[in-house]
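During the no-cost extension, the postdoctoral fellow (Dr. R.K.) reprocessed legacy sequence entries with the updated structure-token encoder. One reprocessed record is reproduced below for audit purposes.
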Amino acid sequence: MSDSLARGLEAMRAQMDTRVMSYMSSCVHCGICAEACLFYTETGDARYTPIYKTEPLRKLWRQEYTFWGKLAASMGLSSKLTEQDLAGWEELVYDGCTMCSRCSLVCPVGIDIAYMIRKVKEGLAAAGFSPEGLVEAGKRAVEIGSPMGVTLKTLQATIRVQEKETGLKVPLDVMGADYMCLLSSGEVAGFPEFIGSLAKIFKATGVSWTLSSDYFEATNTGVQLGNSKMAATLVERVVSAAEKLRVKNVISPECGHAYTTIRWDAPNIIGRPLPFKVVHIIELLDELRRDGRLKTAGVNTEKLSYHDPCNAGRRGGVLDQPRDLLAMVAPNFTELPETGAMNWCCGGSGGVSSNERADPLRLKVFDAKKRQLDAVKPEGLVTACSNCRHMLEDGLEEHEMHDIELLGITELIADNLVEETG
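Re-encoded structure tokens follow.
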């Protein structure tokens, strides 16, 4: 047995908790999950059936953790996992699954298939079977602090531009602020106006906030890659930055997987409770709305629809808040079909967006989103995830749907604020 295979098998054995084994023994092989997966529906390829993507983990479970599997293995009646098995599943898992959890939602016995895909990735990553693009993004995240190579100097330059455009100070390293805000590299590089929008909203609502120069990155490439050690390192950096500034709350930005990671997964990743409360920016804005502190005057009269980010919405429960906020500024809001918890993924979650090899497949499965949009024909599409915005941009360009404007909900609110006077 090669060293890489041994590492991969050991990593998967380490993931074989009671939850995984319960899921394995509960699956009734109904195949319902297939129709919930955009990679299956848009390609018709049975290999993309969600539960099939967990087969390496299932094979190991069957051979080493079940009576009949152990008996068959001892008699030489079953083949053991090989490097070829892992190599064969690497492209299938990393290119053909965004871990969006739509399949988990429809499973009749409640199996969280996305959870098991994460476990499979742990084995593949340990064995060295991961996409080069995602591996390089992980290295940059650890060495530079950003999967896209965004440095503190880059952030500072971006802040200066936003301060000039808004006339407002963007706070950096404010000790004891109520909130420390994280940013994704995608926002800093692609949607820097998000930072200016935060400054406008928090000035108008009187929120005490800050960014940290020690660590500002919300993206956790370790989770996307399936590298628990890397994931823990990146979470610890957030914890350290928050503790240094003595903040009690950390804001997850418009980035779906970042919210799921820091809000729900982080305590398990580092093995202890977080010393602060985590809130998604949309949750905070909606809280300010309910408290009467967030007030708007203008509206966007375009026909707008909303794309629910899978992690923030389906997995994180941030579903009603964006719609309550849109009700303030979008009188012609129209829901997409199969929206909310059953929304179709943008196609780039789970690290797929960092994996260039997957681009042709990702653009192919955008057909699911195109059908949603064709049914409503909105003039603008709003979302609350920077990664989704990048992927939606790609998909709309690929399908020449140039008449649909893409909007971020935070910026939309900021553009229509009523500022307090006196």
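The two ends are 74 Å apart (CA to CA). The mean pLDDT is 95. The remaining legacy entries will be reprocessed before the final report is submitted.
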